[in-house]
Every structure is written in structure tokens, then in C-alpha cells.
Amino acid sequence: LGLLHRLGYSLHLVDSSHPTLRFAAPVIAQACMVGSTPVTLWRPRCLPSRKLGKLLNVVAAHAFIDRLRSLSPAFVWVYNSYSFEARAALHLKRRAGSRVVLELEDLPRARGRSFNPKPWLDQYFFPRLLAAADLVTCVNAGMQRQFVRPGQRSLLFPSLLQQALVDAVVLPRFRKPTHRLGYFGGLESEKGADVLLAAVARLPVGWTLVVTGVGSLADAFAEAQRAHPAQLEFHGRVAHEQVLSLMQGCDAIVNPHTPIAQMHDGVFPFKVCEALASGALLVSTALPSIDIELSRSVLSFDGSAAGLQDALTQAGRFYADHADTIAQTRAEICTRFSEASVLQQLRAELDAVLVE
Question: Which of 310, 312, 268 lies closest to 286, judged by CA?
């Protein structure tokens, strides 16, 4: 939103996250701020049940989105092929001539959702939205090669690095006898946070795990900190500025995400590029390609607590042996995915789409 505002666009944010678990009337054209960015907020009706509310939003999408037609939006930017967003984009493209940008971060059925019907509904809209998209941003190179049709405009967009992280002085790592391993992400099993809980008690001597984030496992992390205060430092929800500061203080950062290959290569953890940009050693499960060679700068592990323990015993030596490669990878990540670089890429692509 901040980058689009800097490009001169007036922003109307349609929030379909169903944040209020109660009966709530739609929000229509309410001025508000997202961070330091001014936006006009629109929100469909909310119900006490998020699943039912989201399904209702899909059914009533046209009636709600018709209110936006009078704005004649130049672009509709949608995140994934979620059903409501897909119907809105297709409707506004057909009725108002809006261009469509599809930010493709997750495939509709990449994550298990048991008996939830919504991923199947999202999958129904996916090929239609993909065909209608004037610009597709892809979270990894495999998705870009698989789904972007010849001649369709696309950007590889695995992350967006805050300029403060790009401009930070890179501190030397593994200079002290004790070491810090950071995790900065969602506290959910699918993201591998349960593996970190299992690993706390078996960390190698001298290692401390530093964790921020929220999720269903937050209480378990708080309890683990009480049981193992020397091995776990749990911060919970913190401001992003503090996350960046904590990253700078870590020797290594772990990405324990469920192996992406098990999710049809349909995602890429946004925090991976932040970890690489911090200059710390990244310890990670297998990752899909982002067209940057990572194998010699990332220490891989199998996603288990025992595998993480083994990787940490090798971490200091790996970092010493690959310090130059890690620095080169950081430089390439920062060059390609900094705010300034992404702003330049977006300006060029959006301007080109408008004149086509």
C-alpha cells in the first residue's frame, strides 16, 4: 500500500478478512490509515462465524463491489485467488474496464483445510482470475514458470524488504561463545513452530532460541520459556522495528516451515528473504527457487527437532566457510527486493499495463 501510494494512486482497501466475529454492517468508504498510508476502507458485512461470513461475502460480492464501479478504478490488486476477491476483480474488469494485478502468494489448495469448502471454491476461480490478470506477481520462480502464460506480464516477488533492513550495518556473527537462533513468524504447526517447541530442550550447549510471533502455539511457547528460561526467549507480538533489532542480534535464523514440496511448491516463506538480508546464517528446510542460488549460503535441515540440533552443531563452521557467499547472497537479495527496487519495478510494469 505504501509503495502504491508513493506511485500516486488513491487507494481503496477492501478488507475481506472478516475481522469482527459478530453481526456488523458493511463499512462503506471510511477514511483511515494503514501505518502511515491514507486509504479508504471498505468491508463486507460480518457474521459471528467467519466461515459462514466469508461464504456470504462470496455470494453477495457483486452487490457490494458494484458500489466501487463509480470510482472506475485503474487497477484491482488482489491477493491470491480467494473467491470474494476473484469475483470482485472479474466483475470490475468486465464492468469498469479495470486492469487486474494478481499477487500470487499461495495456491488455493496448497495448505490443508480439512473439510473447509472454501479452498475448492477458490480453486474454481483460480484459472479464470489467472487468465484475466494483466500482471501476475509470483512468490517463487516455479509458480512463475508454471502459471504465467507466454506474453503475460509478471514479477518475481518472494518478499519486500523494508529499507531499514537493507540499510542496516551487517554485524559479525558467531564471535561469542554463546549463540542466538531466531524465529520470527507465525506460531502454527504448518509453519514448523511445533518443531521448535520440541527442539528447545535439545538445543546444543550455548544456544538460545529467540522467538516472536502469535498463533495457536503461543501459550505453549510461554510455558516452554518458563520451563527452559536459559534456552528460550519468547517475546510474543512485537513491533516490526523490534523484530529487525532482534534479527540483528541473532547468529542464525531458522525457517522450519513444512517442506514446500509437500505443498505443491505453492508458497514461499516471506521471512526467508528478511533472514538473508539481516546477514545472519539461515537454517532452513528445502526451499523452492527464487532464481537466486541459495544452496551455498543456506544450511539445510530436514525439518525435525533432531535435524535442527545436528544443523546447529555445524552452524559456526558452515558460517565461517561460507561467509563470503552469505554476504553476496545478502547483497543480491537486497538489490532485487528492497523497497526502492520493487517500487521501480512496479512503476514500470503498471505504466506498461495501462497503455496496453
Answer: 268
Edge-first strand order for the sheet with 27-34 is 12-14, 37-43, 27-34
Give the β-pairing of 207-212 and 12-14.
Answer: unpaired
Q: What is the pLDDT of residues 19-31, one digit of tens each?
A: 888 899 999 999 9
Q: Which helix (H) or strand (E) holds 153?
A: strand 153-156
Strands 37-43 vs 27-34: parallel, antiparallel or unpaired: antiparallel
User: 101 by DSSP, 3-state: which?
Assistant: strand
Residues 6 or more apart whose CB falls under 8 angstroms from that of 310 comprise: 301
CA distance readout (Å), 196 to 102, 178, 225, 315: 33, 19, 12, 17
Residue 73 has a pLDDT of 95
List, in sequence order, the alpha helices (H) in the chain. Answer: 2-6, 50-59, 61-65, 83-96, 118-132, 141-147, 163-167, 193-199, 218-227, 240-248, 270-278, 305-337, 339-355
Backbone angles phi, psi at 286, to 5 degrees: -60, 140
311 Rama sector, left if φ>0, alpha if ψ -120 to 50, beta otherwise: alpha
Residue tagged 459471528 (cell numbers): 48
Place of cell 505443491: 264
Query: Identity (one letter) of the amino acid at 136?
Result: V
Give me the DSSP letters along 206-261. TEEEEEE--STTHHHHHHHHHH-TTTEEEEES--HHHHHHHHHT-SEEEE----GG
Instruction: Please name every residue paired with 78 in a beta bridge, in sequence order, or none if there are none.
Output: 102
In the chain, what percentage of residues exceed pLDDT 90? 71
- Per-residue pLDDT tens for 168-198? 999 999 999 999 999 999 999 988 999 999 9
Q: Which has the closest alpha carbon to 104: 59, 66, 58, 135?
A: 135
Rounded Cα–Cα distance for residues 105 and 273 (Å) = 14
Query: Helix or strand or coil: residue 264?
Result: coil
Half-sphere exposure of 78 (CA within 13 A, CB side): 29
Would you give the end-to-end CA distance of the chain in angstroms?
A: 24
Exposed, middle or buried by CB within 10 Å (0-12, 13-18, 19+), for 252? buried
